[in-house]
C-alpha cells in the first residue's frame, strides 16, 4: 500500500513524464501506422520494383556486370552499397553516392540479377513515405533527432512503469476494466485511459524499449568500428582506399564470402571506404535462413584486390540486440496478420495518449475554476 507521500511522488512522475513525451509519441504513432504497411503501400502506389518473369533456371549475371550497369547510369558517382531483397534472388539494389562518406545524397538503382538490366531508378528522398520515415526516425534532424526521440522513448517507459504502480491500488476499488459511465465525463475518460493502457501494456513496453534501442544504431555501429573493426584492420591502418581500377573481381569476392558462410544469404555489401567497411575491403553482410538468424548479420571482410578472406568476426552482443529489436519494433516478421495487429495496438495507444492529454487539460481547467472561485 502506497503512503500518501509516495502516491504523490509516483503521480507527479507519471504525469510529467507522460506530458513531456505525449506529443512526440503521438507523432511517432501516427507516422508509424503507414510505415507498418510500407510494402503494401509501395505495391499500391506502384513504387515497388518487380523483376520480370524468366525461366526458373535462368543463370545469375556476374556481380561485376550488375554494378557496371548501375554505374553507367551515374558514372560520376561511386557505388557505396549493394543489397538483395529479403525474398528471392532476381534483383539487386545498388546505392550510388558522390563519395564513399555517409550522406543523404544517394541514388538507388534496381538491376535485374539475371540479365544485368537496369529496371528502374527508385525515387529517394521524396514522397509521402519518405516524409513519414524521416519524421519517425529522426525528425529530419539526423543523429540529434534520433537521440532526442530516444529520450522521449525513455520517458514513455517511465510513464508506463509509474502508471502500473498507480493503477494497482486504484483498481482495488473497482472491477478490472470497469468504466463508470454514470459518473462525470472526466471519470469515464480516466477509466478508459486505464483500461486501454492495460490492454496495450506489454506491447507499449516492447515497442518503446526497442524504439529507444534503435535510436542508438549510429552510435553502436561507430563503437563497433572503433572497438573491433579497428583491431582487425590494424595491418591496413593509414593506407589509402583501393582505387576502383585496382580492385579484383567482385563476383569472386562474393563467392569467397558465400563459401565462408555456407547456408547463409547475402543481405548487403559495403564497398571500400564506406561506413560499414574499410578502405581496403569489400564487406559482405550475410544472414541466416532461420527466423531468428535471418535478423542477424555475419560480416565477412574480403580483400578488395585479391578477393581473399581477411576476417569473419562474430557480431558483438550489442549489435545483435539492436538487430533483434528491429522486427519487434516494426512488427514485420509475421506477415500481414501481425502487421494488422500492430496497427490496431498502435491505434489503441493513440487513444491512451490522447485520453491522457485530455485528462490533464481537464485537471488544469478544474484547478483554474477552483482558483477563481
UniProtKB/TrEMBL annotation:
InterPro entries in alphabetical order: PepSY, PepSY-ass_TM
Domain PepSY: residue ranges: 62-121
Transmembrane segments: 16-37, 147-171, 192-213, 340-361
Keywords from the named record: Membrane, Transmembrane, Transmembrane helix
The UniProt record lists the keyword Transcription regulation: no
Domain of life assignment: Bacteria
PANTHER family: BLL7967 PROTEIN, IRON-REGULATED INNER MEMBRANE PROTEIN-RELATED
Protein name (record): PepSY domain-containing protein
Organism field: Verminephrobacter aporrectodeae subsp. tuberculatae
